[in-house]
């Protein structure tokens, strides 16, 4: 959204960076996908922003509080830092129309595939969408990529195989099918450089 801004790879969390385990509500249940920290570090080294874009409807469902979610995010940051990797931004949507906690059921404009989280990240971080990529393991990630006009990369960790089948049925484009985050990052960095990545 910011011409001549910085390129970013938007990353889903569960099933992409961390192992898919349903609604995680304790930091100790968080586990990185093999090679995920090295993949995030590769983005850092390439000068590409690594930005988490994650639906967390467990908050609206009453399964976790925003304070608990913040502790889980802190643990994710710590686990990545242990391997020399860092996130440049992390955005979570706690809202879900079918939730049980009323304050989180009204405005769902942030919830993927709605573009709210990406729009906010672009404003906050000066991101140029024309040189950015979305990576995730669900159809909502691919549909979000389509809506904002960027490549959608599906990882086959988490729910990726299901997302691929759904994408074939829904017409959501898949720019690249990656076995894991490392492959997704390698493809994304090559694509971004091909677009003339801004320094």
| H-E string | EHEHEHEHEHEH
Tell me the name of the CATH class.
Answer: Alpha Beta
What's the total count of β strands? 6
Strand content: 5-15%
* Fraction of residues in helix: 25-40%
CATH topology: Rossmann fold
Rounded to the nearest angstrom, the radius of gyration is: 16 Å
Q: Can you tell me the overall shape?
A: globular
CATH superfamily: HAD superfamily/HAD-like
Return the CATH architecture. Answer: 3-Layer(aba) Sandwich
Largest sheet: 6 strands, parallel
pLDDT under 50 segments (min length 5)? Answer: none
Instruction: Give average pLDDT, whole number.
Output: 93
How would you describe this structure to a colleague?
The protein has helices at residues 36-46, 66-82, 116-125, 139-148, 160-170, 181-194, and strands at 8-11, 49-55, 89-93, 133-136, 152-155, 176-178. The protein is globular. The protein has one domain (8-194): 3-Layer(aba) Sandwich (Rossmann fold), CATH 3.40.50.1000. Helices cover 37% and strands 14% of the residues. Helix 1 runs parallel beside helix 6 (181-194) and helix 4 (139-148) packs across helix 5 (160-170). The protein has 199 residues and is an alpha/beta fold. Strands 3-2-1-4-5-6 form a six-stranded parallel beta sheet, with helices on both faces. The protein contains six helices and six strands; from the N terminus they run E-H-E-H-E-H-E-H-E-H-E-H. The two termini are 17 Å apart. The model has no long low-confidence stretch (mean pLDDT 93).
């Amino acid at each position: 959204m910011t011409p001549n801004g910085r390129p970013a790879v938007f990353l889903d969390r569960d099933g992409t960076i961390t192992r898919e385990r349903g609604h995680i509500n304790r930091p100790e249940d968080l586990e990185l996908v093999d090679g995920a920290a090295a993949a995030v570090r590769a983005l850092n080294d390439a000068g590409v922003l690594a930005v988490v874009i994650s639906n967390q409807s467990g908050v609206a469902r009453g399964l976790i509080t925003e304070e608990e979610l913040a502790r889980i995010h802190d643990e994710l940051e710590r686990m990545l830092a242990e391997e020399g990797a860092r996130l440049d931004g992390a955005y979570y949507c706690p809202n879900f129309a079918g939730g049980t906690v009323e304050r989180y059921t009204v405005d769902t404009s942030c919830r993927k595939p709605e573009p709210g989280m990406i729009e906010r990240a672009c404003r906050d971080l000066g991101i140029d969408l024309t040189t950015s990529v979305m990576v995730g393991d669900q159809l909502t990630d691919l549909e979000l990529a389509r809506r904002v006009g960027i490549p959608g990369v599906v990882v086959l960790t988490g729910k990726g195989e299901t997302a691929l089948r759904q994408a074939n049925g829904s017409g959501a484009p898949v720019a690249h099918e990656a076995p894991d985050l490392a492959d997704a990052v390698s493809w994304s960095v090559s694509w971004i450089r091909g677009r003339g990545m801004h320094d």
